[in-house]
Amino acid sequence: MTKNSNMSVLLKGLLLENPVFVLILGTCPTLATTTTLIGAIGMGLAATAVLICSNAVISLLRKVIPESVRIPCYIVIIAGFVTVVQMFIHAYLPTLYELLGVYLALITVNCIILGRAEMFASKNSVGKSVLDGIGMGLGFTLALVSIALIREVFGAGTFFGMEIPVLSNFKIEFLTKAPGGFLVYGIMIAAVSKITKGKAPYKKEFSCANCPSASFCGKQNCEERKGN
Amino acid sequence: MDSFKSLVVILLSSVLVNNYVLSRFLGICPFLGVSKKLNSASGMGLAVIFVMVMATAVTWPIQHYLLTPNGLGYMQTIVFILVIAALVQFTEMALKKFVPSLHKSLGVYLPLITTNCAVLGVTIDNINEHNFNFLQSIVNSLGCGLGFLLAMVLFSGMRSKIEESEIPESFKGLPATLIAASFVSLAFFGFAGIVDNLFA
User: How far lies A171's CA from each of A149, A174, B123, in Å?
Assistant: First the structure.
């Protein structure tokens, strides 16, 4: 498989460059919307839709947007698509709209979307950017669902809202609350770094070093990880 | 007196019970990234308080006097993020020009705050979630900012302990930090219910 083949662009988001577990982007929705599986899937797919559209448009405009004002331009494009998705969900899936609440609007400032715009879409062709959007979006969804699976099944004793016979008598309610979110996420990152040991690229070009808030947020974490 | 009481309740509940970082998961990136040293943690916290209050003071009138009367409520997200981005830029320029000493200590954190979801979150929450009036919104933003500062400062203390301890290989770095955050968040659980019964 050549390094930049379309398939690898698509697949790398799933595990090796998983935005949540490896690149550590978009932590806020990861922790906030994973108390239920429905919320996790809704959040994942909404963000995926925004990511695909914004990646495509930013890639189309990559030669038009001047370097110095690119971040505000990206934010406006992303905010536009977020509004579209928000209105769509409000109209057709009102219960999901209630469930996600303010986090839906906050997709705008999700570092995954801005990060991919900056790291990938601004440098690659439209086709590859769309594939990258699909891969990263699915990786994000997959990560959210795997965290939500643990938190909902063991925390609430339910599966998609249906009660699980034995587990619902022994539920660990702590997991559905805020501290449980931090705990499960921490353990999942550790597990993924164990599984992908040596394979996951903690290099600068893949890290969040290009994100606008990198100098404080992601880069530090990445350098920490590289140091280990 | 009643309105004063309600303001105190809003302030305390946004600082302690509904702490933005520890119970609502907003602003996790700076919380994990900048909390390594006490200096930078408190600097970032102060800058966030400042921007949150400013942003609320600007976005609340925009929503109630510009967007809602003209049926443009759906433009909320786009308008708010642009206003916050512009506001942060202007604040940085103004600080640089007029108060260089403050710019030196807070300035570096300001550009990061544009993409901090806690700021956008609090401006939207004030309007959509709580339906606060102007004064209540300002107090709520102040409380959220103070809560952010409190969480950052507490956590920076905890992190310096982690740095010195022996941790299994795959838990080093971020996983250990997140698990520590889980304990801090657990501690804040103790505040639940305190505010409801404060004036009962």
Answer: 13, 9, 36
